[in-house]
Amino acid sequence: MLPEGLIDALIEHLGADAVLTGRDAMAPYERDWRGQFRSQAAAVLRPRTTGQVADAVSLCTQAGVAVIPQAGNTGLVGGSVARPDQVIVSLDRMTAVRSLDADNDTITVEAGCILADVQRAAADAGRLFPLSLAAEGSCRIGGNLATNAGGVNVLRYGNARELTLGLEVVLADGRIWDGLTGLRKDNSGFDLKQWFIGSEGTLGIITAATLRLFPALAQRETAFIAVPDPAAAVRLLGEFRQASGDNCIACELLPRLALELVCRHIPGCRDPLDRPAPWYLLVELASPAAGDWLADALQAVLATGLDDGSVSDAVIAGSLDQAAALWRLRESIPEAQTREGGSLKHDISVPVSRLPAFVSEAGAAVARAIPGVRVCAFGHVGDGNLHFNLSQPPGDDGDAFLARADEAGRIIHDVVAAMDGSVAAEHGIGRLKPAALQRYRSPVAVDLMRAIKQALDPDNRLNPGAVLEYREP
């Protein structure tokens, strides 16, 4: 389905091994992580250099062929799904760490670097790269930046946007913008990198990035805490931040249902507490400063909580292995939900102060519409981002439950909008939520997005249909 001569031109510029056209060879790149979208590209390109990415984009766009950028292919909203007349450009061969400047606390890496490898490179230099999420062993930096990934450490270190100092980007016309810089201060005009972070490959293809590093952590305290309700969790968050000198790097909320599903379906997982509780907090305090004062801060907050009823029980990890076991409970929730049956997933955010009201109101609203539905709301209480997931009623037909996705999404998103929240907190929009973006963002905001898209990609050749509703070129 490609114009005559395009494959030959791509092979000439990229090499035969970088141009995949067979169905078996392309299959790993066409798999949608959640299985909600069907991808079947005309070809998959695997460039090794930024120059080859530029050649690929230039040749394809000149031929009128759309380009779908792809990094680790671990996205959850169909952001890198291709049609039969489109080409996937995978960055999985661009894995170099170009430089690491320990004195400047920066690392420059290519977009195909796996997140865990960037973390290790920083650790080898005595530094910390704090972006951390469950898929870090397979997701790649280009995708992390294209979706402005969050993860568990946003509370202390910020999203991917806050961790990025500079970018290298291939534009829709094949030009290369070299914006790689390690500067913390640069007010020489527009901050161009911010246009591309979170744009999901619709404005340009990120090929490399200069990222911020931080001092390595010298002490870390992890606790799994039973709490009566989300309101108590929000109060405890404030107390942990105050007592630790704002060194609370993660604060995760889990309902009892989530823990039960994980213990039921994930081998080796068990309830770390003796008695069940309606809600739990997984809290981590960490600092690069030596000492054990964070342990004292943690104990002090827990002691106060036990006295005033905001804490009913807690366990503190005594080793890195124990801490990892507690984190495994949190990170295994999506898999456990999938094994339990039909699951509808919603990635939302509201102001932290409104989390308790949101959980109550949204939970009641979906329960009225879908009797017996099980709400599994978990996530990053520290930054207001919840994965407000729904598990099918026990014994119900899974397919029938999944068929109510639009209805459930509209109910939840209406509550989100009423609380000045976002219908896409950290997973992005992709091809799953353009209609929701159109519905819940202001018309002025959507017009501005379209204007930027028109300016940088006037022929709609970069990831068409992602983020903004599809329009024919």
Describe this structure in words.
The chain has 473 residues and is of the alpha+beta class. The chain has 4 domains: 6-90, Uridine Diphospho-n-acetylenolpyruvylglucosamine Reductase, domain 2 (2-Layer Sandwich), CATH 3.30.43.10; 97-215, Uridine Diphospho-n-acetylenolpyruvylglucosamine Reductase, domain 3 (2-Layer Sandwich); 219-333, Alpha-Beta Plaits (2-Layer Sandwich); 341-428, Alpha-Beta Plaits (2-Layer Sandwich), CATH 3.30.70.2740. The chain has 17 helices and 19 strands. The strands form 4 sheets. Strands 12, 13, 14, 15, 16, 17, 18 and 19 form an 8-stranded antiparallel β-sheet that branches. Strand 8 (164-170) and strand 9 form a beta hairpin. Helix 13 packs antiparallel against helix 15 (405-418). The protein is globular. 50% of the residues are buried. Keywords: FAD, Flavoprotein. Belongs to the FAD-binding oxidoreductase/transferase type 4 family. This is FAD-binding oxidoreductase.
- Tell the overall outline: globular
Helical fraction: 25-40%
What is the CATH fold-level name of the largest domain?
Uridine Diphospho-n-acetylenolpyruvylglucosamine Reductase, domain 3
What is the count of helical runs? Answer: 17
The helix-and-strand class reads: alpha+beta
Separation of termini? 17 Å
Instruction: Report the major sheet.
Output: 8 strands, antiparallel
- DSSP, total strands: 19
Which CATH architecture of the largest domain is right?
2-Layer Sandwich
Report mean pLDDT, rounded to a whole number.
96
CATH class category of the largest domain: Alpha Beta
Radius of gyration using CA atoms only: 23 Å
Structurally, the number of domains stands at 4
Taken as a percent bin, the fraction of beta residues is 15-25%
Keywords: FAD, Flavoprotein
InterPro entries: FAD-bd_oxidored_4_C, FAD-bd_PCMH, FAD-bd_PCMH-like_sf, FAD-bd_PCMH_sub1, FAD-bd_PCMH_sub2, FAD-linked_Oxase-like_C, FAD-oxidored/transferase_4, Oxid_FAD_bind_N
Organism: Spectribacter hydrogenoxidans
Family: Belongs to the FAD-binding oxidoreductase/transferase type 4 family.
